[in-house]
Amino acid sequence: MQTSWWDAVSRGDGGGLAQRIVDVLAPVVRQNINLMNSSGIIVASTDPERIGAEHRAALQVLETGQAVVVREPRDGIPDRPGINLPLIIDGHLTGVIGVTGEPEAVEPLAHVVVLTVELLIEQEREHHTSMVARSRAREIVAALVSDGQSLLKVGELLRAEGLGEGPWSLGVWAAPEPRQDGSAQPPHQAENIVMEINEGRSPSGRPTARAVVWRGLLWVVSGAARLDESLGEERSRRLVTSGVATLEDLRSWAQDMAALARAVGLLPTGTEAAPVPAELAIALAHLPQHTMRRVADLTSPLTQAQHETVRAVAYAGSLAEGARMLYLHRNTLLQRVERIRNLTGLDLRRSDQATLLTLSVLARDTIHE
After folding, report:
1. List of residues 6+ apart from 86 with CB closer than 8 A
2. What CA–CA distance (Å, rounded) separates 99 from 111?
3. What is the pLDDT of residues 170-190, one digit of tens each?
4. pTM of this prediction?
5. Residue of 158, 138, 146 whose CA lies nearest to 254
6. Superfamily of domain 4-129
7. Where is the PucR C-terminal helix-turn-helix domain (predicted)?
8. Which pLDDT score, from 0 to 100, does residue 273 have?
């Protein structure tokens, strides 16, 4: 007999699932209702004095698997007239539901009560399972981000959730628009995505990924070699890394992603033609705020068009390709490059100074996002 889950959550202490179900049904049914566990003990009732007592008719139901009708009260037996029906969960007899009253009158109602209870139990179990998965996902992510947790512990958490020994994939997603302070907020439908991922199963029956919303980001960690980057809406900001072979690298990526949550404007959206290189965004995200402002000030004299020029040339890797991306003649681009050098003292044609210019533009965009 399958009893453990129902018995665990149906304790008759006034706060268990069983009593909550009775409290919901009682005003509608307007009959006394008893819920019994797999031992025939009343764990919830509209009559609090009966909680904890043995129910004789329930014992017969548990023994035979059939409904038991009580037509007349008997001396020494507290069972009242009514009908007692088996409670089936996952195809197993796990308890009994009793509705008091004239048996012929309450029998149709009792069957409706049983169906309703089974539905409420299933919903509660799904909610409980979802919350447990979410809690474990949060524990994994927090352990990865914190140096206070050993990598040995991280490995234990991953294995406990069936996410294997690697390689792993890790990703974060955020809404296109940051919060007022520049930090991340979850993408649209993030909670639905979390539920879908945490309920997903591989053909082997083991979970393939865990998801949670944490620090304004939707986090997904997967035991698969690759992770679907198209989660959320197309405009969502995201950073995904796949094929991470070691726990050291997995922690490094998690800590970098946590840093980006504070400056989420550095995360590219799915629609950007020239996304910020990940390593450059990460380097900038780790800068203290006062340092980021100082770096941003390097390009404060530049116009928006000149900012776009820096971005395009940095992404393209050459002036010729940058001119093509900006739909400019090469000579026009050279004029812009020279103007940028005059205003900032930094030359886009020199790789070291181009990197500094790019960092400054990104920092400025992040601060003023």
Report:
1. 61, 62, 65, 66, 67, 93, 95, 96, 114
2. 10
3. 999 999 988 888 889 999 888
4. 0.65
5. 146
6. GAF domain (3.30.450.40)
7. 308-362
8. 62
